[in-house]
Amino acid sequence: MPDQIDLQLAQRLIDEHSTLPGAMLPILHAIQEQFSYVPAEVVPLIADSLNFSRAEVAGVLSYYHFFRQQAPAKHVLQICRAEACQSMGSEALAAHARALLDSSSADVTLEPVYCLGQCGCAPAILLDEQLYGRVTAERLAELINRRTS
Ligand code: FES
After folding, report:
1. Which CATH number is 138's domain given?
2. Which atom of ligand 1 is nearest to the CA of 81?
């Protein structure tokens, strides 16, 4: 069962950012930074505070891949899927990661990201906020093992 979301804290974060221009994105970033994702319970608070419909907030949430709508696992593996990394095999690397994670009990959320600013070191990944470049399938397995065991 997921942890109870502190809605007062969420409302405080919303209030702190609600006067910024284009407040929706700063609010969503602040919420995700605090809770690691944007809980469904917070969507009505954002909608009410900004005078948007819940559907509009949900639309923004689903448009941007960056925002999680589910709580992530203990570890987060992000594999860059943008052009430079794709040309260096990031799709195959992501498929390898998926197979690896499916066959293990490692508590890892696998997510795509779109450019980590490391195009010269493609394919690039972030594992628990740590950046790695020129990642091969073998190195990926080693990094996941080291991080999760
Ligand atoms: S395209 Fe992957 S780091 Fe830029």
Report:
1. 3.40.30.10
2. 2
